[in-house]
């Protein structure tokens, strides 16, 4: 019989974190544990207002469904995901946390690191970027001094975006990615894209609102910067349309419902010849580590949640100065406390 436990948290960011959808100084989240005998798997989901996800609601759902979850006979993580998908329809963040815990527990039972259980090799992986939220030109320059990194993602959509990208380029020769989180109008995007190309921006993420499909097609006619979908592609229902519209997809475990559907989505993206980004939702070490086990499948990595937080939960994940991620090569995800 499974043993389900959970623990909420509220971790401070090192710097106030602002995107086009709002600003926050702390990241609420939830750790879940699935135990079987002496072993336990750990999962994580964060509270994200613009996805209408709250820790309180996730806890209420866990309490309501705890007896049926604990009675589940774990025979494979994929079957467990299907059980959760039908038990908790429309609650991808919570399903993801439980799915991650299920995979972690299963890999621990099999005494294998998760990536190895998935048939992957820990090689040829992209470095992660470091995200700078919407802030001032002066603060961008100071952040680069404080956090030298080989790849930056700059959040935009708060005004004076070109000046901010230019300030980042002036401060560093590193790779720059720009993420608008749906924050631009079509007119802004048309004006800004040629200038971003001059500043050697390597990637543009979700420049327009997900519903602006015709405008996106128009924008991409003269856009030589790869355009990646984020908010436009939450789960498998959105995938085919986004494959047709974008150069790549940002896969986030919480959005799509966990490792199980993420693997299916990555397979379809690669089959279509498009790019895979692995992205985070400001998770701490347990969530970031689970995502990192999929790094051998990624073209781009945005797994910097633990770097953005002033405090973290768990151990087992480390970053070097080149943005490379290393994990504790123990069974499961390798996360420990």
Tally of helical segments: 13
Record the strand order, biggest sheet. Answer: 4-5-6-7-8-9-10-11
How far do the termini sit from each other? 23 Å
- The portion of residues assigned to helices is 25-40%
Report the CATH C-level class of the largest domain. Answer: Alpha Beta
* H/E element sequence: EEEHHHHEHEHEHEHEHEHHEHEHEE
- Look up the CATH topology of the largest domain: TIM Barrel
Rounded to the nearest angstrom, the radius of gyration is: 19 Å
Mean pLDDT: 98
CATH homologous superfamily descriptor of the largest domain: Enolase-like C-terminal domain
Largest sheet: 8 strands, parallel
Low-confidence stretches: none
Shape: globular
How many distinct folded domains?
A: 2
CATH level-two architecture of the largest domain: Alpha-Beta Barrel
Number of E strands: 13
Tell me about this structure.
The structure is a single chain. The chain has 337 residues and is α/β, with parallel strands linked by helices. It has two domains: 109 residues, Enolase-like, N-terminal domain (Enolase-like, domain 1, 2-Layer Sandwich), CATH 3.30.390; 211 residues, Enolase-like C-terminal domain (TIM Barrel), CATH 3.20.20. An eight-stranded parallel sheet has the order 4-5-6-7-8-9-10-11. It starts with a strand and ends in a 10-residue tail after the last strand. 48% of the residues are buried.
């Amino acid at each position: 019989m499974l043993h389900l436990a959970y623990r909420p948290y509220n971790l401070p960011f090192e710097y106030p974190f602002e995107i086009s959808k709002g600003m926050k100084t702390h990241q609420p989240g939830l750790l879940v544990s699935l135990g079987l005998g002496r072993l336990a798997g750990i999962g994580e989901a964060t509270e994200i207002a613009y996805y209408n996800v709250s820790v309180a609601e996730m806890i209420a759902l866990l309490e309501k469904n705890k007896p049926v979850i604990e009675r589940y006979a774990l025979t494979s993580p994929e079957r467990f995901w299907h059980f959760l998908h039908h038990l908790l329809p429309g609650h991808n963040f919570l399903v993801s946390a439980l799915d991650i815990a299920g995979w972690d527990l299963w890999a621990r039972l099999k005494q294998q690191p998760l990536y190895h259980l998935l048939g992957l090799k820990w090689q040829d992986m992209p470095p992660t970027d470091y995200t700078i939220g919407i802030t001032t030109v002066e603060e961008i320059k100071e952040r680069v001094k404080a956090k030298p990194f080989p790849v930056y993602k700059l959040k935009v959509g708060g005004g004076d975006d070109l000046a901010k990208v230019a300030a980042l380029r002036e401060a560093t020769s590193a790779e720059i990615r720009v993420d608008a989180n749906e924050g631009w109008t079509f007119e802004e995007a048309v004006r800004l894209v040629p200038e971003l190309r001059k500043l050697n921006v390597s990637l543009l993420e979700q420049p327009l609102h997900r519903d602006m499909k015709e405008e996106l097609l128009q924008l991409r006619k003269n856009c030589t910067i790869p355009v990646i979908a984020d908010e436009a592609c939450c789960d498998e229902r959105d995938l085919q349309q986004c494959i047709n519209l974008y150069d790549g997809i940002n896969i986030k475990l919480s959005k799509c419902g966990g490792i199980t559907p993420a693997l299916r989505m990555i397979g379809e993206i690669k089959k279509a010849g498009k790019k895979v980004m692995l992205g985070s939702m400001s998770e701490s070490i347990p969530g970031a580590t689970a995502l990192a086990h999929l790094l051998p499948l990624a073209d781009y990595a945005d797994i910097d949640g633990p770097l953005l937080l002033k405090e973290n939960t768990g151990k087992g994940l480390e970053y070097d100065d080149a943005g490379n991620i290393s994990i504790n090569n123990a069974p499961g995800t390798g996360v420990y406390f």
